[in-house]
Specification:
about 750 residues, elongated, two-stranded antiparallel sheet, alpha/beta, seven-stranded mixed beta sheet, Transcription Regulator spoIIAA
Length: about 750
């Protein structure tokens, strides 16, 4: 059953306004804008209210603790904290392998960063801890400075340390520097930087990271000894080394990994199907880990089947240590993208749940919170912390309302580290690798976005593919740079080459649309409406002028090249030389026409009604008014103003009236400031709406409308044969005078 659209009518009776007449009838309020000094003074001013707001901003815990509902929320937070804690422990152990660190340090990352985020973070639902992409990026730095084979980098702080201790020092130093970058960005209020990472870019980047993670875990699943490789094409070299040794696969590791991946995958799917009926998701990772530990210990997998196990777990916590400055110098280039990616992922996930539960998050405060959390955690040997979507989903879906759930999960990690760590020592590393791989399902499924993006927006698809391929082949740090480059190029391309159009009036309305899209339109004779849907700046001003001439002078283009050649020094002595070229030759002479000509002797206004040779047939081009729709023009720079001024004068000097409509008031102010207006370009050319300008034009040329095609002015060009072409003289700014 189709339902008719409810339509209402409105009628407005008012004068036809130009910007000048509108300003006469309606007085504008001129506001005094604050100077930079005023903003600085206001920022540095302190009173009791600002001090209170500053404390509440820096310690968001005060805000949500004041409204905490103990009876309603506490039980949910406890249950959620236990569920999330179990997953955080397993993921901490597994993701430490991605960072090329001993598994026990993954438990540090599940504990220390959460302690500070509890007080400083604005999100009530994200689970702070290890994230596979960050772990892999940190691992790339670790393997570069402390490779599996060969000597480590020449760093003084490495003296007297074992390989594991050297790697822990590198990971904690990189994390410390990452925290400094995040804290600095938060203090400088640059949380907006995350907007440059579009959803498409993040999707392509995380998909590439999933491919890297998958390849990095194959050596554990297959039980092979493959050295860590970093840098461009590292994934290719890693796969090469894996396939060279494929015949040495440890069958016990492979079978155990396949069984665990199958079981975890099936139970996770059941969790999704029955999530409405289950009070908490089944902690299948924990169950399989406990079973694998028991079986490995009972059957002595390490000695009987040569299975690599977790081994000695660090019991308790070590004293804090200072980061290594030499590692800072070696890893600064990698630490910055790690800081950006960590914040972008955490902020995106936090934003989803803040909208769902109706509270606000502060991007700058999140940067401060994660910066301090990573600095604090790195002092105690943890590695890069952010959030993982799977952990956060469990924390929210199992009843978590605040970060009390996160604090409880951190306490569980502490209990395992202090008292129960020895129980995990017989756990095969292939089990951790299998858990990492099976949790990549969500990221790997993002490959399905390619056909969707290709159908909807091919430019976005190009960003996705460029980011993904760049990150896979060049590494995650360089891949992020490539993705940002491709993304910015698409923005430049879209603004430099916008889709310009010629508009027409929809019959019986004051609406104007692209003339190619509608059948019932009204186009007055001699009037063209041109629209450019983008800012006009130095990079697209020539494109704008070319498209303008092409759009409004289609009747000129297929006829002749028109060349004006001055003869003599007198201003009134002008010879009009009409040169005919064939279509094939016309484009070859384009450069010749573009050469500057000294036309200072030309009159200020061209008279196209002058007498021409008797053997030349010169019809009119029916254009007396040109309307430029600036409703989508958000800014003009100095170069664009100069180019626009030249283009307008070209039309004015061939007796075409030009009008600019719907121009932003700040652009008009800037035009005044830059001395844009003169004796030819007047403020009366500007109209508040397109319909006002059209009504003004129709009123001005109503006699022309009554008399058919007789126009008060026009552009002339010659016509003799269909196989010749013409070039509209207004396309050449230097063909009239020096503006």
């Amino acid at each position: 059953v189709t339902m008719a659209t409810l339509r209402k009518q409105y009628a407005v009776s008012r004068y036809v306004y130009s910007e000048d007449s509108f300003g006469e009838d309606y007085e504008k309020v001129y506001r005094v804008r604050k100077t930079t000094l005023d903003h600085v003074k206001e920022y540095l001013t302190c009173d009791s209210k600002r001090a209170k707001n500053a404390v509440l901003s820096l310690l968001p815990i005060i805000g949500w603790m004041r409204i905490y509902r103990v009876r309603e929320w506490l039980l949910g937070d406890v249950v959620s904290g236990i569920s999330t804690g179990l997953i955080a422990i397993m993921q901490g152990l597994a993701f430490s392998l991605l960072a090329s660190l001993p598994p026990s340090y993954g438990l540090y990352t599940a504990f220390f960063p959460m302690l500070t985020y509890f007080f400083l973070g604005t999100s009530r639902h994200i689970s702070v801890g290890s994230f596979p992409v960050l772990s892999l990026m940190v691992g790339a730095v670790v393997t570069r400075l402390v490779p599996d084979e060969g000597p480590p980098a020449n760093i003084t702080g490495f003296e007297g340390l074992t390989q594991d201790q050297q790697r822990v020092l590198v990971a904690s130093s990189v994390t410390f520097l990452m925290g400094i970058f995040q804290l600095a960005m938060g203090v400088l209020q640059v949380g907006f930087i995350v907007v440059y990472l579009s959803d498409t870019l993040v999707s392509g980047f995380t998909t590439a990271a999933a491919v890297h993670i998958l390849v990095s875990q194959l050596k554990f699943v297959l039980g092979l000894t493959v050295p860590g490789i970093s840098g461009p094409l590292s994934i290719i070299y890693t796969l090469e080394k894996i396939f060279v040794q494929i015949t040495s696969t440890n069958i016990c590791d492979l079978v155990m990994s396949i069984l665990i991946m199958a079981m975890v995958f099936i139970v996770k799917e059941l969790n999704d199907i029955y999530k409405a009926k289950l009070p908490v998701p089944i902690p299948i990772e924990v169950i399989m880990t406990v079973i694998a530990c028991g079986v490995s210990y009972g059957f002595n997998f390490e000695k009987r089947y040569d299975v690599e196990i977790v081994g000695k777990m660090v019991s308790g916590y070590e004293p804090p240590m200072a980061p290594n400055v030499e590692v800072f110098q070696e890893s600064a280039v990698e630490a910055f993208p790690i800081a950006i990616v960590g914040f972008a992922v955490a902020f995106s996930v936090a934003k989803v749940y803040s909208i769902k539960h109706d509270y606000t998050i502060d991007g700058n405060q999140e940067l401060i919170a994660f910066g301090i959390s990573n600095i604090f955690g790195a002092s105690f040997r943890s590695f890069a912390a952010s959030t993982a979507l799977s952990r956060t989903a469990v924390q929210e879906s199992s009843g978590g309302k605040t970060q009390i759930a996160g604090l409880i999960s951190a306490m569980m990690a502490m209990i395992v580290t202090v008292a129960l760590g020895f129980l995990l020592e017989p756990l095969p590393r292939s089990v951790l690798g299998a858990l990492v791989i099976v949790n990549l399902k969500g990221m790997l499924m993002q490959f399905r976005e390619i056909p969707y993006l290709w159908r909807r927006d091919k430019t976005e698809c190009l960003v996705w593919l460029g980011t993904c391929l760049g990150a896979i082949l060049l590494g995650l740090d360089l891949g992020l740079v490539v993705g940002l480059g491709v993304e910015l190029l698409t923005v430049v391309f879209r603004s430099q080459f916008p889709r310009c159009s010629v508009l027409a009036n929809i019959n019986g309305t004051d609406l104007y649309r692209d003339r190619k899209d509608y059948l019932h339109i009204f186009e007055p004779k001699g009037v063209k409406i041109f629209r450019i849907p983008s800012p006009i700046f130095f990079a697209n001003i020539e494109f704008f002028r070319d498209k303008l001439v092409e759009a409004v002078c289609t009747t000129c283009l297929p006829i002749f090249w028109l060349v004006l050649v001055p003869s003599g020094k007198s201003r009134n002595n002008i010879k009009l030389d009409l040169v005919c070229q064939t279509t094939e030759e016309s484009y070859m002479n384009m450069e010749e026409l573009d050469q500057p000509t000294d036309l200072k002797g030309f009159p200020f206004q061209m008279d196209w009604n002058a007498e021409l040779p008797s053997n030349v047939d010169v019809p009119r081009v029916d254009l007396h008014s040109l309307i430029l729709d600036f409703s989508a023009v958000s800014f003009l720079d100095i170069s664009a103003m100069k180019g626009l001024k030249m283009a307008l004068k070209e039309f004015i000097r061939i007796d075409v009236d030009v009008y600019i409509v719907a121009c932003d008031v700040y652009i008009v102010e800037k035009l005044h400031m830059c001395m844009f207006f003169d004796d030819e370009i007047l403020t009366s050319m500007f109209f508040p709406t397109l319909h006002d300008a059209m009504l003004h034009v129709l009123e001005k040329h109503k006699d022309d409308t009554k008399n058919g095609h007789k126009l008060s002015s026009g552009v002339y060009c010659t016509r003799q044969d269909k196989n010749v072409s013409t070039y509209f003289v207004a396309n050449h700014a230097n063909s009239f005078s020096d503006i």
